[in-house]
Automatic annotation (TrEMBL):
Keywords: Membrane, Transmembrane, Transmembrane helix. It comes from the Bacteria. The keyword Transmembrane helix applies. It comes from Nocardia rhizosphaerihabitans. The chain crosses the membrane at residues 21-41, 61-86, 93-113. This is Uncharacterized protein. The keyword Membrane applies.
Amino acid sequence: MSTIAPSTQTRRHSAGWGVGAGLFFSVVVFVPAVFVVRQWLDLAEVSATPSHLRARPVEVPASYWVTWFVAVVVLLAPAVALAGWFVMRRVAVGYVVTAGLVAVALAALTIGFELGGFAPS
């Protein structure tokens, strides 16, 4: 039995809030933001033609990979701020796990479509 009165206990927030926020930001904001940043920086478009139908292999510039990496870092940055606040650590863990996994999966899917092509063969 706890000797601390319920009104003085620190209320911890559930990881569910972090999971929900992670899903929202990684699905609704992450991939569209990468495309907007790539257009804003005037990066070369990657051809949608399937790789086996291309005359020569696609040369992917380093800036393509940098935009994906920076986008993941920016996506996970709020978790660092939340982790510093004790009552929000569960939310931060839920956010970083969910946003990280979903962002990596979406990035891999998008990169696969862009580099391998997605037009019917």
